[in-house]
Amino acid sequence: MMSSTSRILGKLRRITLKRERASITESNKPLDYHADENSGQYREWTDRMEALGRDLYVLAVSTEQEFLSAGEKLNDFYVRSMDISKTSASVLDALSPEKLEAITNRFQDLLDRIGNYLGKSEIEFDESTKVLNDLFAVAGKIRKPIAGFKKIVKTLEILSISTKIESAQLGREGEDFVTIADDVEKLSVLIGSSFADILARADSLSSSVEQTLSKVAGLRAKQKDKVQSILDATRSSLDSIKRKNESSTATAGRISADSDEITGQIGEVVSSVQFHDITRQQVEHVKEALEQAGARLAGKLDSRETLTPEGTNGLEAAIADIHAVCELQKAQLIDSGEKFYRAAENIIGNLKGIAGNIMKIYMDAEGLAGAEGKASSSFSAIERNLSSAVSHFNEIRGGIFGLATAMGELTGTVGEMSRFVEDIEEIGAEIELIAVNARIKAAHTGAEGAPLGVIAEAIQRLSADARVQKTAVSEELKRIMESVDLLRKNTGATDQMSQTDNLLDELALLLHELRDVNENALSLLSEVEQQGKRLASDIEDTAARITVHHEFMKKIERATADLGSIAATSKKLLSGNGKSLEPGMLRHLEKNYTMHSERHIHRSFAQSNGGPNQPLPLPVIKPAAKTDDGFGDNVELF
Question: What range defines the domain where residue 126 resides?
Answer without folding.
Answer: 98-243+373-516
